[in-house]
Design a protein that fits this description.
The complex is a heterodimer of chains A (about 120) and B (about 475).
Chain A: H1 27-36, H2 43-60, H3 95-99, E1 105-106, E2 109-110
Antiparallel strand pairs in A: 1-2
Helix pairs in contact in A: 1-2
Chain B: H1 6-14, H2 20-38, E1 41-43, H3 46-62, E2 72-76, H4 103-111, E3 114-119, H5 153-160, E4 166-171, H6 177-183, E5 186-189, E6 209-214, H7 217-227, E7 257-261, H8 271-286, E8 290-294, H9 302-317, H10 336-347, H11 350-362, H12 368-389, E9 395-399, H13 415-420, H14 426-431, E10 435-442, E11 448-455, H15 460-473
Parallel strand pairs in B: 2-3, 2-4, 7-8, 7-9
Antiparallel strand pairs in B: 1-3, 4-6, 5-6, 5-10, 9-11, 10-11
The chains are: A mainly alpha (about 120), B alpha/beta (about 475).
């Protein structure tokens, strides 16, 4: 896969706008993101997306100036430990009900285009 | 009857003044008349609704009714309901008839409430105007050229137009409170973890929370009693004692300390909204409250933080929509990757794709620390602001939205302008706190203004008390749009 230099900026430099112009996404960046997100996009769509994403990242850029040294990241709304449950079957088999709403099934299997030759 | 409180409706049902079938049918008739213009509902299923109403009537006759038995409640189309089309406002789920019930739906079913229909919403709850719905925009019942707010815009419009007795919403960054404010109704987002998210289609899992929307705080308390409670199927559901959220409704407010964050009354707030909110604060003084000036210094940062974290979580949650097991699949495609890419490109709308792309980018290799981790650190600073503030006050008040309902199409093409309108609500989700909005007057063009009440963790009963006492002293919540 083609490597994008912008994705390899050293850690420190990422916080320095002069060294790191990543607030402005290129068309290639947007194309890469669309591919990672599994979204087919035409060229005009990519261009429109780039402009809008750049506006949004302009809004987000405000965050970069905040000194967060020593602050613990808050990953969740409540500081509670993840609850664990016993490893046992709790759900009944509803295969027919689930497959009834699938786009394409055959013999109880979900059909997708061939992936292995 | 359409202006009765849930308590009054419950009493009418129990004393046989009206049956649930009659009540349900009268709402269905009203919906048939008004929904073509307002577009508040995506799906109606009168057969199921009336069957539930008949079952409720039997239960009422047996004398084992709950407070909500027989009452028609509309459900936001984000809640999976068995046998109901559940679209989440998206083309991606245009054919998704849910094979199971969300916990919230089960709770209402167990209470004997009637599911009146599925309400319109912004696609996957991403929006503040209801304009991103694949099923057409919802109109504000106070002025059909204006937005109802979002993402629970269909619910807010349905409650305001008396197209249901009450309804549900969900709130990730203000999606209950902002439409409640813009449509002149009451809405409450509980503390994160109070209502199970099981079967509620996920947007940003660390922020999403379901809550009630209705015409008064008293109604909200009854609804929350039904919705709240531990559910082991949601790993973030909190194990707590069952509580009666109506228990404190009638307490006097003498000595209540209300914190007013200076950041909520600064630049960006419309004059008409400020005036209505200040009048509400004056009313609270009369009720015996003490006003305390406070500061939430990181308020402004809540928007950039939210627009990193919510899209990041969304990009992960929405990866499940791949055209394989359910939902939309593109009619033509080549290999597997092409099928994914085309199904998602055609199934998702523009705003959803935008947020998936923001999320994918901030989580991608090399950017994680600068965006995602930095946003999580600032999230802690924002939550800490509230913890500090609650040392000086019992509740926090301010506007819900910086302006009243804007015109349809006014902000549609400018995502950034739309995002900025969430300035007063987002920090509450980031901190995981409960927040509500109640009507407190009218601004320019006679559009409703919402007063936001933010409580400390698990302080819903006190917030409902604070709102109810105001609603006893004023009648803003009783006003209805002319239709």
């Amino acid at each position: 896969m083609r490597r994008n230099k912008r994705f390899m900026i050293p850690y420190r430099a990422r916080f320095d706008k002069a060294l790191n112009p990543f607030m402005s996404l290129s068309l290639a960046d947007v194309e890469k993101v669309a591919r990672l997100a599994r979204l087919a996009m035409t060229d005009p769509e990519l261009q429109a997306a780039r402009d809008q994403l750049n506006n949004i990242f302009g809004l987000i850029a405000e965050m970069q100036a905040v000194d967060t040294t020593g602050i613990e990241p808050m990953s969740h709304a409540q500081d509670v430990a993840q609850r664990l449950r016993e490893d046992k079957v709790t759900e009944a088999n509803q295969r027919e009900a689930f497959q009834a709403i699938a786009p394409q099934v055959e013999n109880g299997l979900y059909l997708v285009p061939q992936v292995i030759e | 009857m359409i202006n009765s409180s849930l308590t009054q409706l419950g009493a009418a049902l129990r004393t046989k003044k009206i049956s649930s079938v009659e009540l349900t049918q009268s709402y269905l008739d009203r919906i048939a008349r008004m929904n073509p213009e307002l577009n508040a509902y995506i799906t109606l299923n009168p057969e199921i609704s009336l069957a539930q109403a008949r079952a409720a009537d039997a239960r009422l006759a047996n004398g084992n009714a709950d407070p909500l038995t027989g009452i028609p409640v509309a459900q936001k189309d984000i809640f999976c309901a068995k046998g109901w089309l559940t679209t989440c406002g998206s083309k991606m789920l245009h054919n998704f008839v849910s094979p199971y019930d969300a916990h919230v739906i089960t709770q209402f079913n167990n209470a004997g409430a009637v599911n009146l229909g599925k309400t319109n919403m912004d696609e996957f709850a991403m929006g503040s105007s209801n304009e991103t719905s694949h099923y057409g925009t919802v109109k504000n019942p106070w002025d059909v050229s204006r937005v109802p707010g979002g993402s629970s815009g269909g619910t807010a419009a349905a409650v305001a137009a008396r197209l249901c007795a009450a309804a549900t919403g969900t709130d990730t960054g203000g999606s209950i409170r902002q439409p409640a404010a813009l449509c002149g109704i009451s809405g409450l987002k509980p503390t994160y973890g109070v209502v199970s998210r099981y079967g509620m289609i996920a947007f940003a899992s660390s922020l999403d929370q379901a809550g009630p929307m209705g015409r008064s705080a008293e109604d909200l308390a009854l609804l929350l009693n039904t919705m709240a409670g531990f559910d082991e199927r949601d790993s973030t559901s909190l194990q707590r004692e069952k509580e009666d959220y109506a228990r404190d409704l009638n307490k006097p407010l003498n000595g209540l300390r209300i914190g007013l964050p200076k950041e909520f009354f600064a630049e960006g707030l419309s004059g008409d909204v400020a005036k209505a909110v200040e009048a509400a604060i004056a009313e609270y003084r009369k009720l015996g409250a003490i006003i305390v000036d406070i500061s939430l210094p990181n308020t402004k940062l809540s928007i950039p933080v939210y627009y990193v974290l919510a899209p990041a979580e969304a990009s992960s949650n929405l990866s499940r929509f791949d055209g394989v097991r359910y939902g939309y699949r593109a009619p033509e495609y080549g290999d597997l990757a092409d099928m994914y890419e085309k199904s998602r490109a055609q199934g998702f709308g523009a705003e959803v794709k935008r947020r998936i792309m923001i999320g994918t980018y901030v989580l991608s290799h090399g950017y994680y620390d600068a965006y995602y981790l930095q946003a999580q650190k600032i999230r802690r600073l924002i939550a800490q602001d509230f913890t500090d503030a609650y040392k000086q006050c019992d509740v926090i008040m301010g506007p819900t939205s910086p302006s009243t309902a804007f015109k349809l199409g006014e902000k549609g093409d400018d995502p950034v302008q739309m995002y900025l309108s969430d300035i007063y609500t987002i920090a509450v989700n980031l901190a995981g706190l409960p927040g509500m909005s109640i009507p407190c007057g009218f601004g320019a063009n006679d559009m409703p203004v919402g007063l936001q009440i933010i409580g400390n963790y698990f302080d819903e009963a006190r917030m409902l008390n604070v709102a109810h006492q105001y609603q006893l002293a004023t009648d803003w919540h009783g006003r209805a749009p002319q239709l």
